[in-house]
Amino acid sequence: MSRATTLATGSVGVALAVLGLKALAWWLTGSVALMADALESIVNVAAAVAALLAIRLSAAPPDANHPYGHAKAEYFSAVLEGVLIVVAALLILNEAWGAWQAPRPLALPAMGLAISAVATAINAGWSWQLFRAGRRLRSPALLADARHLLADVVTSAGVVVGVGAVALTGILWLDPLLAALTAVNILFSGWRLMRESVGGLMDEAVEPGLLARIRGLVSSEAAGAIEAHDLRTRHSGSTTFVEFHLVVPGDMRVAEAHEICDRIEAALKAELGSAVITIHVEPEAKAKHQGVLVL
């Protein structure tokens, strides 16, 4: 079992445990804000299961129908998670409106808040772990799960403080107000997640900082060539695709040009990790005098 699969499996277990704790906190207090927090945890469970399935599918090797592999399956998981977040937010807004019209006092607020705080601490620790592993493994599904959990931690902390204020002050309308604010924050989180995932599905270029490093490596490792142009990049899950045209002197032997390509490819893979490099070699008559100049 891969590291990403192990973490995704762990996310399912953590999400179920946190859901149980938050549901208990809601049941004890009757707080609509804590109910909103529990509803988001239901989304966490569904999203964790979707991420696990996507990671398992994306790990499948290329086949005749998918010669570039299955890495984009992780983006579909992230889009699904964003949709689920939006659905949860709409459900919370509906409950918040009902509670606003008919506010009700809280029962056992101290115990409910303590349980909710424990659940929030668990989510915070697991989110930090997923961020570290997701960046190292370059897994969109793990990073999406980490961002969602981090948003959950922020909203849960606000809910705990707010429900505590309701218990201390007796201002009952604060409870549905907090639920509504939680829903708005969740909506923003879902929109941002879907935006990033759709960017991956649409083959957006790598971020400017990484592109600059790629250009620098091509320039420094292509000694003997003249220039590189038509550089294109994209991400597919944890794999980075890089392709460009490399212009070499017209009288250069094929073996020499191939050696330059091997050197560039090795340097790029050392920088990028999982990468697919495609280099089209051209004679100097094809030079465009733009793009990446060779140092």
- Hey, roughly how much beta strand do the residues contain? 5-15%
Low-confidence stretches: none
Helix and strand run? HHHHHHHEEHEE
Q: What is the CATH topology descriptor of the largest domain?
A: Alpha-lytic protease prodomain-like
Radius of gyration: 25 Å
What would the principal axes of the Cα set say about the shape?
Answer: elongated
* Name of the CATH homologous superfamily of the largest domain: Cation efflux protein transmembrane domain
Organism: Teichococcus rhizosphaerae
Family: Belongs to the cation diffusion facilitator (CDF) transporter (TC 2.A.4) family.
Keywords: Membrane, Transmembrane, Transmembrane helix, Transport
Membrane topology: Multi-pass membrane protein
Overview of this structure, please?
- One of its GO terms (molecular function) is cadmium ion transmembrane transporter activity.
- It is found in: Membrane.
- It holds the Pfam family ZT_dimer.
- Residues 11-202 form the Cation efflux protein transmembrane domain.
- With 295 residues, the protein is α+β, with helices and mostly antiparallel strands.
- It has two domains: 3-201, Cation efflux protein transmembrane domain (Alpha-lytic protease prodomain-like); 208-293, Alpha-Beta Plaits (2-Layer Sandwich), CATH 3.30.70.1350.
- Helix content is 69%, strand content 11%.
- It contains eight helices and four strands, in the order αααααααββαββ.
- It has helices spanning 3-29, 32-58, 73-101, 109-137, 140-169, 174-201, 208-221, 254-272, and strands at 227-236, 239-248, 275-283, 292-293.
- Strand 2, helix 8 (254-272) and strand 3 (275-283) form a beta-alpha-beta unit.
- The protein is elongated and about 85 Å long.
- The two termini are 43 Å apart.
